[in-house]
Amino acid sequence: MCLFKKPKYVVIIGPQNSGKGTYSKEICKKYNIPHISTGDILRENINKGTELGKKAREYMNNGVLVPDELIFGLLKDRLSQKDAKNGALFDGFPRSLSQSKYLVDMINVSAVVDCQITDEVSVARMKNRRICNKCGKVFTVKPGEKTPKCDCGGKLVVREDDNEETLKVRLKGFHEQTQPVIDFFKTYKNKKGKNIYVSVDASKTIPEVNAEIDKKLSEIL
Ligand code: AMP
Fold this sequence. Notes:
This protein has 221 residues and is α/β, with parallel strands linked by helices. It is 47% helix and 15% strand. A hairpin with a 5-residue loop joins strand 5 and strand 6. The protein starts with 7 loop residues before the first strand and ends with a helix. Adenosine monophosphate binds at residues 16, 38-39, 42, 59-60, 63-66, 71, 92-93, 95, 99, 170.
């Protein structure tokens, strides 16, 4: 049973490889909300060969943002599903000012968690990342250690857009387009006049970051 009556809409934000997916799991579990990752939904569509996937693929492989009209449609669809009635955690959305304004017009955002890492940490982490080609689960491989296996039987592969060149374009995009999102939420007040922005140092260990997020979210949710 969910102990939280009002829907909780949480945004998790941070550069590529800041660990958003990992921290999201804990937040979703605690607040009983689904994890909505626009990147995952787009990749699912590419794998299934849908019209949306076909349109999005080129943008994604070039490391640039998929046009808003495709993202807004996808998001509306996802939010209308039953499991999103308690709220949702948005991962990878909003990524631009136009997307931020769209979101605050559509729902009452409860919290924004900004996971901060430097570009150097992002590049170093990318080199160790693999993704299951069947279920999409993300793994970290350690140099010199055996590559782990996914429970679902899928194969661990390097993500199509995980290469240093594309990552640099994506990090540049993050700084140019997503930094304004952070600035927007730093001063944004929700409908009750409350600040909703918190930041964490995401270069620490996973348990440390999870604990810091939990503490900061408990104070505002
Ligand atoms: P991610 O898995 O969040 O790193 O996203 C991978 C790619 O999907 C991005 O580089 C974009 O091309 C696309 N994408 C994901 N979310 C969005 C979004 N909110 N707006 C536009 N493009 C997106």
